[in-house]
Amino acid sequence: MALSAFPAPWSDPTRRPVVPPRHAPRAAALLLPGTPGECAEARRFTVRTLAAWDLGHLADDARTVVGELTANAVRHAGTRHPLTAAEGEIRLRVTLRAAHLLIAVTDRGDDLPAYPGPAGDLDTAGRGLRVVEALSDHWGWTRYRPSGKTVWAQLPLRARI
Description:
Blueprint (H helix, E strand, L loop, with lengths): L25 E7 L5 H15 L6 H18 L13 E7 L3 E8 L20 H8 L2 E6 L5 E8 L5
Antiparallel strand pairs: 1-2, 2-3, 3-5, 4-5
Helix pairs in contact: 1-2, 2-3
């Protein structure tokens, strides 16, 4: 019996082949009425969603980003006195992608996010987008016509070094 000069690689027939998981996006969405108390519900929803996706290690950063983006939507999107319930709605969408977690908050306000100048030591507001920037790889917004916008942030799935 002759041996091949190029033998086949050894394989264990009892082991199942390793198949990389598909990175199909997973998404979860929440519709909020746009009142200040709903920011807490948005944070809880995010933590529950990440726990279900086995991404608990992202919960603190994601909860903070969601809190900042929904608070900005409530405060700056003109939803305090909406003419209709639909005008006051805020939509939160959390999407898992191959390399990052995408958090998007949509409202009907026309005002675009304004990145604040340097904050003073005694300022009690105006740091939200700086926090979002610090915790995310990228962030930005998309404007809609005739009104509305989505402010989004991408959080890395792996810990930063």
